[in-house]
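Narrative of activities, Objective 1.

The group set out to show that a structural description can be obtained from nothing but a protein's sequence at a throughput compatible with the screening campaign. Below is one input-output pair from the validation batch, recorded exactly as produced.
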Amino acid sequence: MFKNLFVALIIMSKEKHKEEFKEKLKDEEEKIGELTNDLKRVQAEFENYQKRSERNNQEYKQFANADTISDLLPVVDSLEQGIKHNKDFTQVYEQLITILQKKGLEKIEVNVGDNFDHEIMDCLMQEENKEMEEGKVVNVLSTGYKLNEKILRTAKISINKIEAKKDKKENKKNEGERNN
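Output recorded for this entry:
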């Protein structure tokens, strides 16, 4: 009888240890799961950091020369003006433009008669031209440029402003009333 009792106690003890072991195992598995999730999160953050750094480096490389190219634009403008008076400047101008284009520079095409676009143009003055619609480009004063699809310098233009005859008469009438 003692033998059966002793065997029963041993079996109960084993079951108790088995349950404790299962609980510890479950706790350890949960910790492993948490640590695995933490590791995955840190790994994802690091990969995002690497991608962000690569994008920043690419952008830096694209625009590292922006200041230098911007400083050269007045030289390009001077050469364009010089070509109008002396064709000898053409070769130097073309060489300089070719070099700048390899660095990502491109002209913003603006022509007389185009509609005004505030994104790529700065209106410096208004002119009256009865042959054109109001708001159209009358004169391109300086060329605009983009560097790798970002605007480096807007085109400087003048636009057409037609003052209505009625407005002129009203202005003269109002001036006369003010003087009295």
